[in-house]
Structures are given as structure tokens and as C-alpha cells.
Design brief:
A hairpin with a 6-residue loop joins strand 7 (129-132) and strand 8. This protein has 325 residues and is mostly beta strands. The protein is elongated and about 60 Å long. Strands 1, 2, 3, 6, 9 and 10 form a six-stranded antiparallel β-sheet that branches. The chain folds into two domains: 46-181, no CATH class; 189-322, no CATH class. The protein has strands spanning 56-59, 67-69, 77-82, 87-93, 98-105, 116-124, 129-132, 139-141, 154-162, 171-181, 197-200, 209-210, 218-222, 228-234, 239-246, 256-265, 270-274, 280-282, 295-303, 313-322.
């Protein structure tokens, strides 16, 4: 356990910040301070199997945590925390000396009696971060996930825990923490200058879906339709200023793929929206009053159901590219 930990946190929430950045495809080192080096392919559930392996970092409990052997645990042992009326898991940044993400679970939010994954939130790491249970009895060092040459990388943080069958007594066993690195931009975006490209996450809605294979771990959920419409709406003039219709012949099913929506000048208050506005990407931050005539190419990344499958469309990000004169 860390002796320099803070008082027990109460109501911190993980934050999700929009950032302009290009990501490189880098392998994450999985060796851990004070614990065996877990393999990123170690028994990951279906939830993570569609995520590229190089985006995944796993952490086993630190040796100095309160651990017990457990044959069901991913790496043979688990950190032990006391279960009460609720359980809190956080990510603490020792550089900033504050909690940067956290989740509080009540009994109705847990799956008792077996290991199950729970999402903590999205974070940007510093050189010294840990994921910790309620009382810091179980600690998972995230130091080796941090890449000094790419400090702006974001990670979606998950932990695997087994809660007791009884809701009010017993221990919580935590066997691993999994980090999923934000997906790098593919070509041709990766070949552009960083200042030329802007990325936007879906507007936060309760209908958004947790999706580890999405760029930032979650995606907007829209009903599938043929054709599927994506538009740019201007709230000042109260009208659609551009749109595209995607039919069955123009989509790539079963995986995230980029689709061009339009090339245009932005207005001070516009955004990209899907069929019924479930997928929403406000673009206010991209507009520049100093350069109002700047043209942008606008793209969305969407995952349509696989061939012969039914289901919703997942939209995980919008990308703007400055058109250089």
C-alpha cells in the first residue's frame, strides 16, 4: 500500500476531454513493478477481443498489496478489499496528488460470485498513477502504461472484481486492471500534420454504449437505416448546411470505418448529427473567429452491423481536417 495516499475520496468523477492529437501505433510494455509481468493475451473476455492487442495494457496486483492466492484470478492472485454498502475504485495521480477517475458501485450494480469487468472511466496518465480499491489494500501500478514521448494519450480504465454473494458482508477480490489506449488515427489522417487534424468524442448521453473497440471506449448509438444520414446543422440559421446519405453499397460492415460528411466553412455554433440526433458532435471548439473562411473536411467513424446482421450503428468519433490552401 502507498503510504502517501490521500484521504478516502468521495465524489470525484472521471473526466473526458476533447483533444487534438494524432496517435502512433505503439506497443505497451506489460511489465509491472513488484509483480509478475502479465501477458496482454491472458484470458481477456469477449468484451475486449475485438480490440487490437497493442492497445491493451494489463496490470496485476502489486506485491505490496493485500493479496491472496486464487485459482480463478487472471494471474493466480487477487487484491483484497472490504465490501460494505458500496465499493469505490479510483485512479490516483501521485504527480498531481489527486484522483483523476473513479466509480462507486452499489450491490445492484455488481455481478456477485464471479469475476466481472467494471469500467472506471477515461484518463490521461502521468508518470506515476495507480488504480486503487476502497481502502488502498489493493493497488495496481499504471506506471508502465505511461509513454513519455506521448503524454497526451488517453486510456479507458477497467477493473475485474469478484463481489461476495451476500450484499452486505465479505471481501471484494480484484484480480486485474485493464487499460485500453485510445485508437490511433488511420491513414490518411496519420500522415497529416497534427495541427491540421481535430478529433471529437460523441456528446455525452445516457444512451451512449460502452464499447472497448471504439476509439475512446464508448460510442453513440443510432438506429440503423438505409440510407443512413449524417448532417451538419447550424444552430444560428437553424438549418442543415450539409449532409451525406450512406446506402448499403457505401458502408463497410462489422468494423469502424471513416465516412466523409462534407467540406465546408464552419459557423460559430454547428455540429455533426446522425439520423435521429443520437450521434451528436458539437464543433464549436473548431470554429475560429480569426479565420472564419477556413474550410474543413468533416468525417465520422461508424460501425455498421456485420453482413446479414441486424442492430444499431455505433459512432465513436468525428474528425475535422483543415483544408490547406
Amino acid at each position: 500500500m502507498r503510504g502517501d495516499g490521500p484521504p478516502l475520496p468521495k465524489n470525484e468523477k472521471g473526466t473526458m476531454l476533447m483533444k487534438d492529437f494524432l496517435l502512433c501505433g505503439l506497443l505497451l510494455v506489460a511489465s509491472l513493478e513488484g509483480s509478475a509481468a502479465p501477458e496482454t493475451s491472458q484470458a481477456l473476455p469477449e468484451l475486449f477481443r475485438s480490440v487490437a492487442k497493442e492497445r491493451i495494457f494489463q496490470a496485476a496486483p502489486q506485491a505490496k498489496s493485500t493479496n491472496i492466492p486464487d485459482a480463478d484470478a487472471a494471474f493466480g492472485s487477487a487484491g483484497v478489499e472490504k465490501w460494505a454498502a458500496s465499493f469505490r475504485m479510483t485512479v490516483y495521480d501521485f504527480t498531481l496528488k489527486k484522483t483523476i477517475a473513479g466509480i462507486t458501485l452499489t450491490p445492484e450494480m455488481t455481478v456477485p460470485g464471479k469475476y466481472h469487468f467494471y469500467r472506471v472511466g477515461t484518463v490521461k496518465l502521468s508518470p506515476d498513477c495507480s488504480a486503487c480499491g476502497n481502502r488502498w489494500q489493493a493497488e495496481f501500478s499504471l506506471k508502465n502504461a505511461f509513454l513519455r514521448e506521448h503524454p497526451d494519450l488517453e486510456y479507458d480504465v477497467w477493473f475485474s472484481a469478484r463481489f461476495p454473494e451476500k450484499e452486505t458482508s465479505g471481501n471484494v477480490l480484484i484480480d486485474r486492471v485493464v487499460l485500453v489506449r485510445a485508437a490511433p488515427l488511420p491513414e490518411p489522417f496519420s500522415a497529416l500534420k497534427p495541427e491540421q487534424v481535430m478529433q471529437f468524442k460523441p456528446f455525452p448521453r445516457k444512451e451512449n454504449a460502452v464499447a472497448p473497440d471504439a476509439a475512446f471506449g464508448f460510442a453513440a448509438v443510432e438506429k440503423n437505416a438505409s440510407p443512413f444520414r449524417m448532417s451538419v446543422y447550424d444552430f444560428t440559421s437553424k438549418k442543415t448546411i450539409a449532409s451525406t446519405m450512406l446506402d448499403a453499397g457505401s458502408i463497410v460492415p462489422g468494423r469502424y470505418h471513416f465516412y466523409k460528411v462534407a467540406t465546408l466553412k464552419l459557423t460559430p455554433d454547428c455540429g455533426v448529427y446522425s439520423n435521429t440526433w443520437k450521434g451528436a458532435f458539437p464543433l464549436k471548439q473548431a470554429y475560429s473567429s480569426e479565420n472564419p473562411d477556413q474550410q474543413y473536411e468533416i468525417y465520422v467513424s461508424a460501425k455498421f452491423p456485420g453482413r446479414g446482421e441486424s442492430g444499431n450503428v455505433l459512432i465513436d468519433r468525428a474528425v475535422l481536417v483543415k483544408v490547406e490552401k
